[in-house]
Amino acid sequence: MRRDAQAIVLLLVGGGLIRLAWTGDYLNYVKPYALWLILPAGAILLAVAAITAWHAWRDKREAHGGEDEHGHGEPKVAWLLLAPVVGMLLVAPDALGSYEAERTGTVVGAEEDRSTYPELPDDVDPVPLTLLDYAARAIFDDGHTLEGHRIQLRGFILYDGDEPQLARMVVACCAADARPVKIGFDGEVPAGLEPDQWVEVVGEYSPRQGRDEINGELVPYIEVESVTGIPTPDNEYQ
Amino acid sequence: MPHNGSVSADLAESGTPAPTAPRRRRGLTSIEALALLLVFGLTARPGLTELFAAPVTQAWATRFVAICVQAFPFLVLGVALSAAIAAFVPADFFHRAVPKRTALAVPVAGVAGAVLPACECASVPVAGALVRRGVAPAAAFTFMLASPAINPIVVVSTFVAFPNDPAMVAARVAASLLAAVTIGWLWARLGKTEWLRLPTHRHHEDGKWAAFWAAIRHDFLHAGGYLVIGAAIAASLNTLVPETWLAPIAEHPVLGVLALAVLAVLVSICSESDAFVAASLTQFSPTAKLTFMVVGPFIDVKLAAMQAGTFGRRFAARFAPAVFCTAVAASVLMGVIWL
């Protein structure tokens, strides 16, 4: 691989990272804090690309347009870096959704060791909660802190057989470790909910619980009052 | 990269068909590379969109891009550190700083691993720079294994993931340190230098900064290429292997440990977050979760590919199984003692 080609590869990888940060698409792949890792890394790669190109140009001029002697012995494996560039710039895949969630067990067991469940505020109605928080309170605290409140949850729709469920992907590091947390609907659910459609659900705690067939974990339910379609949020993960 | 023909072959390997160019005796110039990419981008985009419209391929692509995007910043940090070691640290510094006797240098390197607050993508190139700088390979490998497992960020994230279980944090640090030091001593006794094939660094007359930038460029392109291979394998396994096969073996004390050890190798999660994933695998025993967290930073498909790139394939073929067995053994031992 010649040095000017190396400069191009570095430019594309660095530029791809900067573009993900600029457009906000990085949230489809990593946690929000990763912005502060991606930006400096992209900037360093762009700097390396610029310096590489400048050195290649300078050496070529000094050698009067002769063969570029430097930079040989660089491995061909570096061309593979174009694959994530194609992924970042051309394919730009969406965040993981119902397809993955239907094939992965619910993740709520990680909250089992939680020790405190702070009381929900009385002056907010309905109380917005994350799906993971709702599920942990419902399963491990028997819904004590949920009773007497109207709860608002936001997530996407998936189907467990014929039964629609509310889900959200929980990400620890990057989308490769995304796992869903799932909540069932109790009561009247509007017909015609599409998989992957984002909805805001308002309702009350239901003591009903089911089991996720994939990993045998408990799935809590919510007594549905209303289900409203909402636009897909910028950060689909939690 | 002497022929255009092999350029096309490499592009094809990465899953991206490229127009074949006539064979010529010189490498690809930047103008040609740019032109090729533009043509490719314009012609292939509708096909790519169609290919990645199916949910399986889309999920694969999301995982693949996610692993790369998460790992690149740490790789850049690692190659920048290793380039700084190569360019600015005087050659005799490590001779003075590291104990002469390898048997002593290995545990010192293990404890020193706590100072590099990065995950495993950063520690591989740093270890390569240390070996090139004359540090005993045994000590460099111990540092490479220990630092992603016991640095402060990892300890804190483990503590957060297991809030009521400080024994898990202690067991993780103890098992990782034990396994890393054991591997160092094993290498000092049994390892052969001819297994190592470090990529050579050209001597630079232009001064230290030129050497620094050249080392970053070289190491990033080299290790990055292997990282892409590892990311592609990890994304494929994550997408294709169904989770349902885990459930029936979770209860078994021995199979559960082995299953999570293998899972850690396959999924290739960063050491800074693997504790959260381990905590979510609730069907498994604490020892099995501990094994997941000890094996993951030591060896996984992404790391094996990067180690093969940094130290050579003959090295990686011997190192990976040895590290895997040692990490499992250390986890089981510490699991019995602490958990």
Total beta strand runs of chain B: 0
Report strand % of chain B.
Answer: under 5%
Provide the gyration radius of chain B in Å: 21 Å
| Largest interface, C-beta closer than 8 angstroms, per-chain residues | A-B, 78 and 89 residues
Provide the CATH architecture of the largest domain in chain A. Beta Barrel
Largest sheet of chain B: none
Distance between the termini of chain A: 41 Å
Give an overview in words:
The complex is a heterodimer of chains A (238) and B (339). Chain A has 238 residues and is α/β, with parallel strands linked by helices. Chain A has 5 helices and 6 strands. Chain A is elongated. The relative contact order of chain A is 0.14. With 339 residues, chain B is mostly helical. Chain B folds into 2 domains: 4-51, no CATH class; 59-338, no CATH class. Chain B is built from 15 helices and no strands. The longest helix of chain B is centred in the first third of the chain and has 34 residues, at 55-88. The model of chain B is unreliable at 1-25 (pLDDT under 50). Chains A and B meet through α1, α2 and α3 of A and α1, α2, α3, α10 and α12 of B.
List the defining traits of the structure above.
heterodimer, A: 238 residues, alpha/beta, OB fold (Dihydrolipoamide Acetyltransferase, E2P), 2 domains, five-stranded mixed barrel, B: 339 residues, mainly alpha, 15 helices, disordered N terminus
